[in-house]
Amino acid sequence: MSDTGHSATAGPGAVARAHPNYVMVWAILLALLVVSILGPMIGIFWVTLITAFVVAVIKALMVAAYFMHLNVERTYIKYLLFTILILMLVLFAGVAPDVMKRAGKNWEHVPATPGAVEPPRH
Amino acid sequence: MAHIPLAATRSVTGIPAGRLAMWWVLASEIVIFGGLLASYVMLRLQHPDWGDEASHTSTVAGAFNTFVLLTSSLFAVLGHRAAEHGDGPRAARFLWMTVGGGAVFMLVKAFEYTFEITHGFTLFRSVFWSFYFAATGLHGLHVVAGMVAMGLVAVGARRGECLHRVELVGIYWHFVDVVWIFLFPLLYLAK
Known about the structure:
The complex is a heterodimer of chains A (122) and B (191).
Chain A: H1 22-42, H2 45-67, H3 75-100, E1 103-104, E2 107-108
Antiparallel strand pairs in A: 1-2
Chain B: H1 6-9, H2 17-46, H3 50-54, H4 59-84, H5 88-118, H6 127-158, H7 164-189
Helix pairs in contact in B: 2-7, 4-5, 4-7, 5-6, 6-7
């Protein structure tokens, strides 16, 4: 780091950062990996859900925060990522009812049958 | 005299142009992988029988590859720290170690694909396997792209040139790691 508070390599606008203990972060990530592998072996649905998926979210947040330095990144980037994730949620919410529900108000999900002939279009 | 583009020197947001560009790239990547994984989750919740199909994926191989990618991410961030200290050759060494991690990952994936395909689990066997090959294949392409980019950056870093690129290529690599962190439970653990 330079004395001006800028990174020696990142150019103008870069803010000096303190580096955490990366090996410690890596060790915690490996411990979480072991938890995510052992959890589903118990065979209980909720345990699998928590150990496989909640732990995955924690691991992803740790990588983003400490390895990608999102914890010290400018707010602009956090808003950018938050917006994209909200758009993903909107996509999911918009499509999921058609895919996951069998029927709704005035409509029914009719699965395609093999060999069915499409009716002529007028 | 080398010409430095204006965009590389100004910083309206307070973020260096290269790093800002990289985050925008990753934002678009989130849409690509997010759409794919959201589609998978929607269908997976509708089809509990996909658990039987998923039982044929190798948890050991998936776990080992998770370990490899997490370790390669450690090398990438250590390379970034070395670059910030102005130590180009050390940063280059860490980058090459990261590339090595990517190579091991792809090697394991190649063995997995070979085993699965020779046992009849092909792209068109079922929707689960279509998702499996699409998601892991797309991810694998990103790993290869990251390896190539990292190799190019490492060549420059060894000479002490453009050391800020070490951080940029590292951010990309960590994102590839994050994607795999979600693929692993979805395709290997939920059986």
